[in-house]
C-alpha cells in the first residue's frame, strides 16, 4: 500500500500537482510507516505560526507589491540613468542597479522582469543588440536576492535558525560582487563596441534624485534601524510597509485607496503559498531528521571524500540543479534543513552556507532548460525560449565565476557581520 501511495504521489508531482500536497503526502506516508502520530505535522505548523519573525514575510512582501504597483520603477530608472548612464556600459548598469533594487523588495525575479522589462528593453535596444538586451534583463531579474530585506534571506534565516539581521549583513558584499562583475563586463563590452553614452547632467540628476528620494532612502533607513537596534526585525518590516504607503499614496499619489485591496490580495497570495509550503515542509523535514537522513547523507559524503573543496563543488552542482527545477522559496524550505548538518560536519558557517545557497538559486533561475526567468522573459518579450538560452549563457558564466569567489572566500559573507557585532546565535522556533 505504501508503494502504491508513493507511486501516486510521484505521478501527482510529474503532472504538476501542488507542491504542498506532495510534501504533506510524503510526510503523512513517512509518519504512518514509522508508527509515529501524523499530528506531528500540525504541531510543527503551530510552532511556525508562533514564531514572531514570521510576520516579516507578509509585511515585506506587501511593501514590495506596493512599490511594484506605483510609478517607483520609472523614478528609479530615471535616477539610474542620470547617475550611471554616462559611464561606459552605463545603460546596462542602469538595468543591473534598478532590477537589483527592485527585486530586493519584491523578492521575486518574475515580478521584476514583468514590471521593469517593458520600460528597460526599449532603452537597451537603442545601444545594444537584441541578444545582449534580452540577456541582461533576464539575468538582472534575480540580482537583488542577496540584499536586505529580501524575502529569501528572511526565509533562509528562519529555516536555518540564524538571526535575520546576520543574514542581512552577510548578503551585502556578495550581492555587490555579483553586480560589480556583471557591470565590469558590460563596461568592457561597451568600450570594445564603442557604444555611445550620454554626458552627465547635474541638473537632471538632481531632479531624478529628488523624485526618487523616498524609495532610495528606504533600504538605508531599514538597515540602519535594524543594525543600530532601534527596532526589531518585525518592527522594521511594519515600518517599511507604512513608509512605502506614505511615500506612494500621500507624497507621490501613485496609488489610491481603491487599489489597496487588489495589492493586498495579490501580495498575500504569494505569502500564502510560501507559508503553506513552509509549514508542511517543516513536518516532512522533522520526519527526515527523525530517521537521521542528514546524518546518513553526511556519513556517505565523508566516506566518499574528506575534502571540503570537493564537497563544496558537489554542493554547488546540486544547488544549481535544484534552482533550475524549483522556485526559490520551495528550494529553501526543502533543501536547507538537509544541508545544514552536512555543512556543519565540514565546518561551513551557516551564514556563509546561506549566501552560497541563495547565489546558486539566483543562477538556477537562468539555467537551461527550465530556468524560471527564461520562460518569463520569453512570454514578456514574445521571443522563443531557445533564443533566451543563447542570450544568457555568457551571463551565466560570469555569475558562476562570482559563485566560485563567494564559495571559497567565506570572508565576503562573514566579515561585515563580524565587524557589526552580529553573531550566529540560533534563532529558536518555540
Strand and helix map with partners:
Blueprint: H1 2-14, H2 19-34, H3 40-49, H4 56-69, H5 72-84, H6 90-106, H7 109-125, H8 130-140, H9 151-160, H10 164-170, H11 172-193, H12 202-228, H13 233-251, H14 260-290, H15 293-304, H16 308-325, H17 328-345, H18 350-364, H19 372-381, H20 385-408, H21 411-419
Task: Please tell me about this protein's structure.
- The chain has helices at residues 2-14, 19-34, 40-49, 56-69, 72-84, 90-106, 109-125, 130-140, 151-160, 164-170, 172-193, 202-228, 233-251, 260-290, 293-304, 308-325, 328-345, 350-364, 372-381, 385-408, 411-419.
- The protein has 430 residues and is mainly alpha-helical.
Task: Describe the structure concisely for a colleague.
The chain is mainly α and 430 residues long. It has helices spanning 2-14, 19-34, 40-49, 56-69, 72-84, 90-106, 109-125, 130-140, 151-160, 164-170, 172-193, 202-228, 233-251, 260-290, 293-304, 308-325, 328-345, 350-364, 372-381, 385-408, 411-419.
Amino acid at each position: 500500500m505504501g508503494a502504491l501511495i508513493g507511486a501516486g504521489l510521484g505521478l501527482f508531482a510529474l503532472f504538476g500537482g501542488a507542491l504542498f500536497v506532495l510534501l504533506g503526502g510524503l510526510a503523512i506516508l513517512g509518519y504512518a510507516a514509522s508508527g509515529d502520530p501524523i499530528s506531528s505535522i500540525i504541531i510543527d505548523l503551530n510552532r511556525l505560526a508562533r514564531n514572531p519573525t514570521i510576520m516579516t514575510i507578509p509585511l515585506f512582501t506587501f511593501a514590495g507589491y506596493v512599490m511594484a504597483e506605483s510609478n517607483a520603477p520609472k523614478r528609479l530608472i530615471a535616477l539610474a540613468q542620470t547617475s550611471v548612464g554616462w559611464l561606459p556600459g552605463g545603460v546596462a548598469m542602469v538595468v543591473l542597479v534598478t532590477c537589483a533594487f527592485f527585486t530586493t523588495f519584491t523578492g521575486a525575479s518574475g515580478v521584476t522582469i514583468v514590471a521593469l522589462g517593458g520600460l528597460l528593453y526599449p532603452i537597451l535596444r537603442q545601444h545594444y543588440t537584441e541578444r545582449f538586451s534580452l540577456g541582461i534583463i533576464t539575468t538582472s531579474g534575480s540580482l537583488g536576492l542577496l540584499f536586505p530585506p529580501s524575502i529569501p534571506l528572511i526565509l533562509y534565516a528562519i529555516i536555518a535558525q540564524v538571526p535575520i539581521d546576520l543574514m542581512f549583513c552577510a548578503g551585502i558584499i556578495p550581492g555587490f560582487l555579483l553586480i560589480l562583475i556583471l557591470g565590469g563586463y558590460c563596461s568592457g563590452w561597451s568600450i570594445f563596441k564603442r557604444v555611445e553614452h550620454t554626458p552627465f547632467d547635474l541638473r537632471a540628476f538632481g531632479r531624478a534624485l529628488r523624485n526618487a528620494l523616498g524609495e532610495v532612502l528606504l533600504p538605508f533607513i531599514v538597515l540602519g534601524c535594524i543594525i543600530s537596534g532601534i527596532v526589531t526585525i518585525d518592527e522594521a518590516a511594519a515600518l517599511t510597509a507604512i513608509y512605502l504607503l506614505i511615500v506612494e499614496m500621500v507624497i507621490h499619489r501613485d496609488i489610491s485607496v481603491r487599489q489597496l485591496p487588489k495589492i493586498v490580495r495579490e501580495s498575500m497570495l504569494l505569502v500564502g503559498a510560501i507559508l503553506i509550503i513552509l509549514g508542511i515542509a517543516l513536518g516532512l523535514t522533522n520526519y527526515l531528521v527523525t530517521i537521521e537522513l542528514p546524518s546518513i547523507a553526511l556519513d556517505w559524503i565523508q566516506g566518499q571524500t574528506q575534502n571540503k573543496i570537493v564537497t563544496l563543488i558537489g554542493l554547488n552542482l546540486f544547488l544549481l540543479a535544484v534552482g533550475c527545477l524549483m522556485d526559490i522559496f520551495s528550494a529553501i524550505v526543502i533543501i536547507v534543513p538537509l544541508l545544514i548538518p552536512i555543512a556543519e560536519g565540514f565546518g561551513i558557517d551557516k551564514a556563509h552556507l546561506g549566501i552560497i545557497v541563495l547565489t546558486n538559486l539566483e543562477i538556477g533561475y537562468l539555467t537551461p532548460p527550465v530556468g524560471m526567468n527564461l520562460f518569463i522573459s520569453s512570454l514578456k518579450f514574445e521571443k522563443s525560449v531557445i533564443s533566451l538560452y543563447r542570450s544568457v549563457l555568457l551571463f551565466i558564466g560570469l555569475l558562476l565565476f562570482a559563485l566560485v569567489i563567494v564559495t571559497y572566500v567565506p570572508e565576503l559573507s562573514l566579515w561585515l557581520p563580524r565587524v557589526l557585532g552580529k553573531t550566529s546565535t540560533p534563532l529558536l522556533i518555540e
